[in-house]
Design brief:
This protein is α/β, with parallel strands linked by helices. The chain has three domains: about 270 residues, Metallo-beta-lactamase, Chain A; about 150 residues, Rossmann fold (3-Layer(aba) Sandwich); about 100 residues, Ubiquitin-like (UB roll). Helices cover about 30% and strands about 25% of the residues. It is globular. The model has no long low-confidence stretch (mean pLDDT about 90). Bound molecules: zinc ion (2 copies). The site of one zinc ion has 6 residues, from helix 2.
C-alpha cells in the first residue's frame, strides 16, 4: 500500500491558541508552528498552557525541522518547552527568528539551530520542500507555507489578511494563484475572522486615526497596543515625528520588540526621536508620546502600573491622553475596563472606542478568505485556527465557493488527516491536549490540583488542628480552628467556638468507639464540620483536619 501523508493538528483547532501542526510522510516529519495557549479563568494559578508534545517525543527520530509562520505567542510561545524535549532546526523569517532567539536565550537553550529565510525561498526537510510565501498580518515578516510533499502540495496560510497598503508589500497573491494553477492538494486556512463579512480594513486607517488624535493635543500622549504589532508601533512613532513629539517606550515586551525590529532594520526612526523614559521629565508635555504595554489589562504591564501608581518612572496625571490601540481579546474585557476606570479616576482622557478607528484586525474576513480559496483552488480544505463556530462557518464559505462538502474536513486536535493524491480521510487519533505550566513546573498541575484551587478560591479553607495522646488517644490540646478566605475570625468568634465544639464531639465519639485510625478520625471531623457549616452558613469551604500525636 502506498504511503499516506498525515496532517496532524496538535493544537489550534476548536480552540484559540497553541497552534501546532505535524506533517508526516514515511520516515519524515515536520512541525509547523509551536504556540502557547492561555489559561482560562478557572485554571487558578496556572501561568501557561502548552500543547501535549508526546506524539513528537515518540517520533523524535523522524523530526526533520520546525517551520514557523510568524512571531506571535500563539505560534512561537511553546518552542522552548518543545525544544527541551526534542531537537531539530527551526526555520523562520528574520523577525520571527529574532523573537524566537530571545525566548531560547531566556530558557538557556543556546544549542538550538535557528535558520533564517526570506519569503520566496524553499527549504528541503526530508521528503518535504517548504516554500515561504509573504503574507500580511499584524506582525512583520509573516509567511504562509506551500509544503510540497510526495502526494501533492499543501498550502498553510498561517495567520493572514490582505492589505494592499502594507508598508512591506501586499501578500503574494500571484504565487498563491500560480500554486492553484499547478494544483493544490489541501488548503489549511486561518478561520479567526470567518464570521466577519467584508474585508479587514487596512492598517492605513489607523494611521489616519492616530493623526486625528495627535493633532491639536497639547497634553502628554500615552499609546498602548500589542507589543508584537510592529506596524502599529512604527505608525505611532511616525505620527509622533510628524507632530514633533519624542517617543519613550515602557514595558519589557515592548522594549524587546523595538530592539529586535531596530536591529533588523524593520523600524526606520529618525535619530533623536526615541528617548529614554527617564528623559521625559525634562520635556514639555506636548512633546511626549509614551508607548506602553498593557492593552489587554495585564496586571503587571506598564499601563497598569502607571494607572495604579506603582510605575517607577511615570504616573498618570490629569489631562494625559491615553490611546488604546487594540481590542480586548475575549476574556480580557474586565481587566481592560478596570484600567480604563482607574485612568479616568486620575483625570486622564481615554480613547478606546472601536468607532475611532484605532485598531484593525490582523486576520482575513470573509471576502479575503474567498479570494484565497479562489486562488488556491484546493482539492481538500481543512479550516484551522479557530473555535468550532469559526471552523464551521469557514467550511460553509468553502461550500459557497463550490467545493464538494465531502472534501471539507473539520477535525479536532489529535485528529489525523490521511491524504493520498486523490483522497483525504480522518484516520486514528494521536495524543493531544494541554499541559499546564505553573511557575517553573511543567505538567505537574493535574485536574485534582485545579479542582482544589477552584474550591479554595470560591469557599476558602478551614484547618482543624488537634494533638492527641499517643497512649490512649485522648485530646491533649486543641482542637484549634484556623480559617483562610472563609470568614474574618475577629467577627465570627462565636462560629469558631461552635466549630471547635463540633470537632471536639467528633473526636470524642471516635474515642468512645475506640477508633484509633487517624484517617477515620480525620474523616469524622471533616464530615461533621462540613455538615455543620453547610447547615448554618450554606457554604462549603475545604476542611483540612491535622492530627498530631504527642
Ligand atoms: Zn498571529
Ligand atoms: Zn495566531
Amino acid at each position: 500500500m502506498a504511503e499516506k501523508l498525515k496532517i496532524i493538528p496538535l493544537g489550534g483547532l476548536d480552540e484559540i491558541g497553541k497552534n501546532i501542526t505535524v506533517l508526516e510522510y514515511g520516515k519524515d516529519m515536520i512541525v509547523v508552528d509551536c504556540g502557547l495557549g492561555f489559561p482560562e479563568e478557572d485554571m487558578y494559578g496556572v501561568d501557561l498552557v502548552i500543547p501535549d508534545f508526546s506524539y513528537l517525543v515518540a517520533n523524535a527520530k523522524k523530526l526533520r525541522g520546525m517551520f514557523i509562520t510568524h512571531g506571535h505567542e500563539d505560534h512561537i510561545g511553546s518552542i522552548p518547552y518543545c525544544m527541551q524535549q526534542v531537537s531539530c532546526p527551526i526555520h523562520g523569517t528574520a523577525m520571527t527568528c529574532g523573537l524566537i532567539k530571545l525566548k531560547l536565550e531566556e530558557h538557556r537553550l543556546d544549542k538550538v539551530k535557528l535558520i533564517t529565510h526570506k519569503p520566496g525561498e524553499s527549504v528541503k526537510a526530508g521528503c518535504f520542500t517548504v516554500e515561504f510565501i509573504h503574507v500580511n498580518h499584524s506582525i512583520a515578516d509573516a509567511v504562509a507555507f506551500a509544503i510540497h510533499t510526495p502526494v501533492g502540495t499543501v498550502v498553510m496560510t498561517g495567520d493572514f489578511k490582505i492589505d494592499p497598503t502594507a508598508t512591506d508589500g501586499m501578500i503574494d497573491l500571484a504565487r498563491l494563484g500560480q500554486l492553484g494553477n499547478e494544483g493544490v492538494l489541501a488548503l489549511l486556512a486561518d478561520s479567526t475572522n470567518a464570521e466577519r463579512q467584508g474585508y479587514t480594513p487596512n492598517e492605513h486607517l489607523v494611521t489616519e486615526s492616530l493623526d486625528r488624535q495627535f493633532k491639536n493635543c497639547d497634553q502628554r500622549i500615552i499609546v498602548t497596543t500589542f507589543a508584537s504589532n510592529m506596524y502599529r508601533i512604527a505608525g505611532v512613532i511616525a505620527a509622533a515625528e510628524r507632530h514633533g513629539r519624542k517617543v519613550a517606550v515602557t514595558g519589557r515586551s515592548m522594549e524587546n520588540m523595538l530592539k529586535v525590529a531596530q536591529e533588523l532594520g524593520y523600524l526606520k526612526v529618525k535619530p533623536g526621536t526615541i528617548v529614554e523614559l527617564g528623559a521625559i521629565k525634562s520635556l514639555p508635555k506636548n512633546k511626549i508620546v509614551i508607548v506602553s504595554t498593557g492593552s489587554q489589562g495585564e496586571n503587571m504591564s506598564a499601563l497598569y502600573r502607571m494607572a495604579f501608581s506603582t510605575h517607577k518612572q511615570v504616573d498618570i496625571t490629569a489631562g494625559d491622553r491615553i490611546i488604546i490601540s487594540a481590542s480586548a481579546i475575549p476574556g480580557n474585557e474586565k481587566a481592560v475596563s478596570k484600567i480604563i476606570n482607574e485612568l479616568y479616576r486620575k483625570g486622564a482622557d481615554v480613547v478606546y472606542e472601536k468607532s475611532e478607528g484605532l485598531h484593525v484586525s490582523g486576520h482575513a474576513c470573509q471576502e479575503e478568505l474567498k479570494i484565497i480559496h479562489g486562488l488556491c483552488k484546493p482539492k481538500f480544505f481543512i479550516p484551522v485556527h479557530g473555535e468550532q463556530r469559526h471552523l464551521q462557518i469557514h467550511s460553509r464559505l468553502a461550500k459557497l465557493m463550490g467545493m464538494n462538502p465531502k472534501n471539507i474536513l473539520i477535525g479536532e486536535i489529535g485528529s489525523t488527516f490521511e491524504l493520498t493524491k486523490r483522497t483525504c480521510k480522518l484516520g486514528s487519533t494521536v495524543p493531544a491536549g494541554m499541559v499546564l505550566v505553573d511557575g517553573t513546573g511543567v505538567g505537574d498541575v493535574g485536574s485534582v490540583v485545579l479542582r482544589d484551587r477552584k474550591h479554595l478560591a470560591e469557599d476558602g479553607m478551614i484547618v482543624v488542628c488537634v494533638n492527641l495522646s499517643a497512649e490512649d488517644g485522648s485530646v491533649i490540646t486543641g482542637p484549634d480552628i484556623i480559617t483562610r478566605g472563609f470568614i474574618y475570625v475577629k467577627e465570627s468568634e462565636e462560629l469558631i467556638d461552635e466549630l471547635r465544639e463540633v470537632a471536639m464531639e467528633a473526636i470524642d465519639r471516635c474515642h468512645r468507639k475506640r477508633i484509633r485510625d487517624w484517617t477515620a478520625i480525620k474523616s469524622a471531623i471533616k464530615s461533621d464540620i462540613s455538615g455543620y457549616l453547610y447547615k448554618n452558613t450554606k457554604r462549603n469551604p475545604m476542611v483540612l483536619p491535622v492530627i498530631m500525636e504527642i
